Amino acid sequence: MRFSNPFLHIPSSRRLGTPLMAFSCFLALSTVGIAAEEEKEEVIFLDPAKAGPDFAIQGEYVGEIPAGEETHKWGAQIVALGDGEFQLTGYQGGLPGAGWTSDRKKIHAQGKLAKNVVVFITEDDEEGARYEEGKLLALDDGEVRGTLKKIERKSPTLGAKPPEGAIVLFDGSSANHFEEGEMTEEGLLLAGTASKMAFGDHALHVEFRTPFKPFARGQARGNSGVYLQSRYECQVLDSFGLKGLDNECGGIYQIQAPKVNMCLPPLSWQTYDIEFTAARYDAKGEKTRNARITIKHNGTVIHDDLELPHGTPGRLPEGPEKAPLYLQGHGNPVTYRNIWVMPHDRAE
User: Fold this and answer.
1) Which residues is 122 bridged to in the sheet?
2) Which among 167, 168, 192, 197 is positioned nearest to 181, based on CA atoms?
3) pLDDT at 24
4) Which residues, listed in sequence order, are joined to residue 77 by a DSSP beta bridge?
5) Which fold has domain 50-151?
6) Burial of 204 by CB count in 10 Å (0-12 exposed, 13-18 middle, 19+ buried)?
7) Where exactly are the structural domains of the chain?
8) Which of 75, 131, 219, 336 minimizes the number of CB atoms within 10 Å of its CB?
9) Which secondary-structure segment (H or E) carries 303?
10) 3-class DSSP state for residue 230?
11) Structure letter (DSSP) for residue 219
């Protein structure tokens, strides 16, 4: 039996063109696919009421699960990843900052929404949990062993009033204390601005909110930063449910990861309460002592009198002069409110 050659009766120019045309079509389809993915990454929600069903599932859950004759408290964080995909982290003892410690068990699972139910498959390829009707059910061999209910944690310092002697940089009435400061219609301060006043040693209270970007990953997911003296950055990022690295929320970039990842879900208002001691310099302008910082993220200490051996790239270099507070603009609609400073020396 003879097999006919499909190119036998096609002119050579067309024979060359056919695979090239196919490759061109492949490139075109690939480009369309990449463009579609890029468009997804830019999907941003600023209103919880319009953020969709995935946002409603995302969040924190707590409950008790029997283990033999004992009962253990567990916490869970569900992160929405877009198109009904979810990531779950379970914490034995409770949520980060509320019972779980690094020496306790932590489990990871992935899930997909189908018919209003999400089944989470663990790293051991087992059904570890199931979300349905607003609850997270802990499973063992397919049977329900415990129920975790959704909660909404709020920082205990949310809405903190400035003490006597504090300088109020932003209270929602105007952005006059910031260089080219811009406000939203809701009276919130947009990232990408620096205070007109400069500071040395001081305490800072600032509240921030990251957007919900379900398809974005890593540094594209609600990026900003609080730069003390425009020199030392405490990262702002939607790091809810992640590891808690030095380039994630609460991290001091290139210096130190937070002791615990206290990041709340996106669109939650969060707080930083910071005590900052500036670096010291001698008469020749040489540094004699590094800056130090203590930070509470949502009321929990994540850095305790941490030494800062160097500054953060991207703004001002280290120096003896007082310098402004900088709220980094990074192409994301991160917003700020209730910002006040208590100088421990005279502000300029």
Assistant:
1) 109
2) 192
3) 58
4) 60, 89
5) Lipocalin (2.40.128)
6) buried
7) 50-151, 167-343
8) 219
9) strand 300-308
10) coil
11) G
CA dist 240 and 214 (Å) reads 12
- 45: its two tokens: 């929600």
pTM of the model: 0.87
For residues 225 and 235, the answer to whether their CB atoms sit within 8 Å is yes
| Amino acid at site 306 | L
Burial classification of residue 264, based on how many CB atoms lie within 10 Å of its CB (0-12 exposed, 13-18 middle, 19 or more buried)? buried
The tokens describing 343, both together, are: 């100088």
Strands 99-100 and 95-96: parallel
SS3 sequence of 155-215? CCCCCCCCCCCCEEEECCCCCCCECCCCECCCCCEECCEEEEEEECCEEEEEEEECCECCC
How far is residue 338's CA from residue 55's CA, in Å, rounded to a whole number?
A: 26
Higher pLDDT, 86 or 332: 86
3-state secondary structure of 41: helix
Question: Checking phi first, is residue 107 left (phi over 0); if not, alpha (psi -120 to 50) or beta?
Answer: beta
Q: Sorting pLDDT into bands at 50, 70 and 90, what band is 5?
A: very low
Tell me the H-state helices in the chain: 12-41, 53-57
- The CATH H-level superfamily of 167-343 is Exo-inulinase; domain 1 (2.60.120.560)
> In angstroms, rounded to a whole number, what is the distance separating the alpha carbons of residues 142 and 101?
28
Distance linking the first and last C-alpha atoms of the chain: 93
Contacts of residue 127, defined as CB under 8 A and 6 or more positions apart, other chains included, come to 119, 120, 121, 139, 142
Residue 82 has pLDDT above 50, yes or no: yes
Give the number of C-alpha atoms closer than 13 A to the C-alpha of residue 331, restricted to the C-beta side.
7
CA dist 105 to 82, 102, 109, 233, Å? 27, 8, 14, 31
Q: Which amino acid is at 232?
A: Y
